[in-house]
Specification:
Elements lengths: L1 E6 L23 H10 L4 E6 L16 H14 L4 E5 L1 H9 L8 E4 L9 H15 L9
Parallel strand pairs: 1-2, 1-3, 3-4
Helix pairs in contact: 2-3
Amino acid sequence: MRIIAVLDTYWDPKYEGRVAPRAFRISKTNHSGRMLYKLVGQDTGLLVTDACKYVVGNANRHGEPDPKWLGDNLRWLESWKYPSVILLCGKVAQRTHELSDYACKAPLLSIAHPAARDWSKDRIIKVMRTVVDLATIPPGMIQC
């Protein structure tokens, strides 16, 4: 399974103000990374992109959502590695995707941000099952 997760903002105090990476492998040791890997599986090909183009200095700050940036990144990712599922993680990612011109080919799943405090065991299991179900849909069968 290949999963793309869309988060809101890339943060790193060393690179604040610079353009964020188009995509990256999130660490399994940070809070969001642990939850994402719990949802999709440890051995999944998980790549992350962000709704905001510029890096911010810490996790409590948020960038300016950029629908064009997100749409371009999703097209770029899709062009070289067709995703099984795209996770839209949190309200910023979901709204930015809605405003983008990206026409999805892979199934989309809107979920809470992985760092949200309201994840329950039942909710985690439900998302895990939904990801697996969506990943079995043949390419081109999704209408967004």
